[in-house]
Recover the amino acids of this structure.
């Protein structure tokens, strides 16, 4: 029972991190109808920028304060992501208005390749560390209930808390600010939003910046957990089934989908894996999603797809 | 001038419905085929064969297969790499387990197995559409990748799923030299290219296109979506499977599951999009572009660097390749979202009137 709980909690924590990446997909899809394959590349790019800025800025200022260095690096990386968002809107999206979904998808794949390349050219391609002071020591819970208790990484707890805070913050932002309202309006209907004077191009820059911000947070958390390296951009492939499971247009769906897939992956690996030969984590999420889609083609919380002739 | 059609009258339905209704096209294709079959082997060296020509031929075959699914039937697939892998591993199993099975039969058998698996993974397309379907096909990619690696009998219990074949022969002629390999691939590509071209012009091709343009409307006018979608999956997977078997047998010789990973799927999708969705010709253009581009960049960048006095190391070249590749894809999508095939069509249209535009 203790082991089961441990796996469950481990799965929930991983799932929270998946949802963090998935959130980026959902935000952009909701606001612009673009399925952003570059989200993983953005996570890598942001994490690389953060890691290197955290080295360069203290060296430049000659200060030792780790806190200051990290804070400045975060701000600088965020500024960079806003610049990236602006460039993407200016150079790519604005030229591809009214193209089909698959063309836009391919364009974001192109962007992904470009970001992967330029990120490693600018910031180097070794493995870098991000140290924002997340505690690494494990924590034992329920020691009175089970023998030995349940082992939980403190780092994971913090990461989950940050992810939860981010989601709450974003939900409030979407719900209660003027910009958030504009974003939701654009998501509902591009043309109607434009006709009442909402500037589409600015909204897209904002939305890609927010996705950049989410990517940065995800990059910092994943990076401090695993180190910043090329494989970080593959996290996007893990987040894809999460997005689809929750539904492409639903923020709560991304969260719940992440939790379901995180838990499912860990439990299946532990309990089913030995029977099938191990390593089933790679495809478990996808196959789960496949079966869910057969029952609900729009995902768990997605808007119902209505065909009109 | 070059494409003037004056005086080319059609007097029978047969003549009107041939693949290349314009005489210049027929001549051009015949010349091209003759040159590819006879001229190229005389001119090319071993490097050109193994690095460019054979990969180009096999990947254009795979791109034709994918184009039937994505370009003609409108079902986005990100599992092409895995279906190539099914073709390769199935052909390997047939080849190794059945004594004296001819190579050609093994390769076609690989295609048949890929067809079966493709239809199974095509079933979700009856309910799922668009991007959701794309992710669903990724399930095929990751599941099959895992199976190649972990299920022992697929790779004859070899570690890390790596297998190799030797002693290929086609119709009694050994396929060992680069020329022989090239001819074998060319033969497959020509046969399947014409078959695919004819298929998409037939009633079944028109059904696929109706499904692509709007499946509800197609169903209303009496096209069975189940039949049309699954047949597209079957034909596409067969061609892709044969291409995969050729890739393993002829191009690689020995391979690991990694050769058919998700990167391959993306690469093929790029070919189809850049070449032109819904165009058999475009598949060739796309394959040529994607095969040649990295090689050109690889040669060009250090040379350019030397020109301005920079010493560019291989890591930078690799990253710059990514960057330029990505940028070029975006550029092409912006300039010509309908792909290189559209440019070709425009050029033909212009050549009809050239040099007198009125």
């Amino acid at each position: 029972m203790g082991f089961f709980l441990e796996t469950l909690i481990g799965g929930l924590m991983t799932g929270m991190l998946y949802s963090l990446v998935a959130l980026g997909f959902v935000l952009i899809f909701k606001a612009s109808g673009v399925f952003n394959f570059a989200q993983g590349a953005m996570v890598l790019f942001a994490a690389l920028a953060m890691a290197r800025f955290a080295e360069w800025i203290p060296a430049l200022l000659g200060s030792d304060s780790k806190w200051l260095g990290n804070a400045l690096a975060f701000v600088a990386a965020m500024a960079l992501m806003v610049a990236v968002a602006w460039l993407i809107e200016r150079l790519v999206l604005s030229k591809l208005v009214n193209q089909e979904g698959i063309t836009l998808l391919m364009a974001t794949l192109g962007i992904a390749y470009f970001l992967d390349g330029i990120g490693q050219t600018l910031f180097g391609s070794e493995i870098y560390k991000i140290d924002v002071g997340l505690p690494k020591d494990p924590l034992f819970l329920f020691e009175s209930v089970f023998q030995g208790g349940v082992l939980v990484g403190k780092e994971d707890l913090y990461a989950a808390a940050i992810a939860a805070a981010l989601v709450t913050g974003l939900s409030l932002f979407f719900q209660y600010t003027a910009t958030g309202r504009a974003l939701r309006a654009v998501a509902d209907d591009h043309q109607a939003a434009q006709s009442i004077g909402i500037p589409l191009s600015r909204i897209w820059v904002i939305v890609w910046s927010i996705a950049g911000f989410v990517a940065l947070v995800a990059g910092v958390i994943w990076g401090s957990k695993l180190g910043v390296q090329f494989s970080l951009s593959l996290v996007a492939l893990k987040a894809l089934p999460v997005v689809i499971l929750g539904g492409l247009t639903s923020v709560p769906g991304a969260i719940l989908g992440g939790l379901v897939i995180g838990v499912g992956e860990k439990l299946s690996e532990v309990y089913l894996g030995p029977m099938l030969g191990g390593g089933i984590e790679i495809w478990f999420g996808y196959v789960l999603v496949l079966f869910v889609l057969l029952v609900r083609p729009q995902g768990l919380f997605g808007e119902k797809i209505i065909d009109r002739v | 001038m070059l494409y003037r059609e004056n005086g080319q009258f059609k007097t029978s339905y047969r003549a009107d419905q041939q693949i290349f209704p314009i005489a210049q096209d027929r001549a051009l294709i015949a010349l091209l085929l003759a040159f590819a079959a006879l001229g190229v082997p005389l001119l090319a060296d071993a490097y050109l064969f193994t690095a460019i020509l054979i990969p180009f031929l096999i990947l254009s075959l795979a791109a034709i297969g994918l184009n039937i699914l994505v370009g003609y039937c409108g079902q986005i697939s990100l599992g092409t790499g895995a279906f190539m892998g099914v073709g390769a591993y199935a052909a390997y199993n047939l080849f190794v387990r059945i004594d004296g099975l001819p190579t050609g039969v093994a390769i076609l058998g690989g295609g048949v197995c890929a067809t079966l698996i493709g239809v199974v993974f095509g079933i979700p397309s009856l309910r799922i559409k668009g991007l959701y379907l794309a992710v669903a096909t990724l399930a095929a990619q990751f599941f099959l990748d895992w199976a190649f690696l972990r299920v022992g009998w697929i790779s004859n219990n070899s570690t890390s799923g790596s297998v190799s074949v030797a002693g290929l022969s086609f119709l009694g002629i050994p396929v060992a030299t680069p020329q022989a390999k090239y001819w074998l691939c060319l033969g497959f590509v020509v046969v399947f290219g014409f078959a695919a071209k004819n298929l998409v012009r037939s009633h079944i091709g028109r059904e696929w296109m109706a499904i692509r343009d709007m499946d509800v409307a197609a169903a209303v006018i009496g096209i069975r979506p189940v039949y049309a979608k699954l047949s597209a999956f079957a034909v596409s997977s067969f061609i892709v499977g044969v291409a995969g078997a050729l890739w393993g047998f002829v191009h690689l010789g020995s391979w690991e599951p990694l050769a058919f990973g998700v990167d391959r799927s993306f690469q093929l999708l790029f070919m189809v999009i850049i070449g032109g969705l819904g165009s058999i010709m475009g598949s060739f253009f796309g394959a040529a572009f994607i095969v040649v581009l990295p090689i050109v960049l690889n040669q060009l960048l250090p040379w350019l660097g030397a020109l301005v006095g920079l010493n560019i190391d291989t890591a930078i070249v690799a990253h710059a390749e990514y960057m330029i590749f990505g940028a070029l894809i975006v550029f092409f999508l912006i300039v010509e979202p309908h792909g290189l095939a559209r440019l070709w069509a425009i050029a033909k249209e212009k050549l009809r009137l050239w040099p007198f535009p009125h």
